[in-house]
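Data availability (excerpt). The following record was deposited with the supplementary files.
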Amino acid sequence: MTLTALISFIIYSFVTSVTPGPNNIMLISSGVSFGFKRTIPHILGIGFGFGLMVTLVGFGIGSILTNSKNLYEFVKIIGIVYLLYLAYQIYISDSVNTNNKPKSHKPLNFLQASLFQWVNPKAWVMTMGAVTAYTSSSSNISIFLLIGLIYGAISIPSVGVWALVGDKLKALINDRKKIRIFNISMALLLLISIISPLVETLSFLREKI
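Predicted structure:
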């Protein structure tokens, strides 16, 4: 990879990681509900899981899904259902952890956040874009490892900003009414983020029926 391509890929990694999507919506909500410190495993899990995903897709494992429409849609359905569940969990939450005390529900842990990337529709778009644009059929293992490492490393501070913003918002969201408005807004944003893959999946299912 040339220096120009490397710089271009770093910019691509930052822009795609920091822009709104399921991960970032969940992180700002977690920052508000649990604080930045308790959200760190979630942030690190995203970085690790996404970096590993990019590397494995580069190796060709992702082609198993992309070449099998039925399997790919099945994974998308799992992701959509899980995102609907997460949106519901955000919606029903009616408190924030302003005193850093344990709550009845917990933030995503490292493993959960890592595994979530494989059913995250935006993660698949980002991954396939990175692999197709910055590698070729002649790329060797070191290139796939490099882009996975870079993408994962850059995504950590990029998505972490959202958790930090959520943590800072706690001071403003200090009563039940504001909390409800915030949680409903985050739940709606999460639902909006899956409209496109949901429409695609529904069209696929209609063709099968």
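Summary of structural features: Residues 97-104 have pLDDT under 50 and may be disordered.
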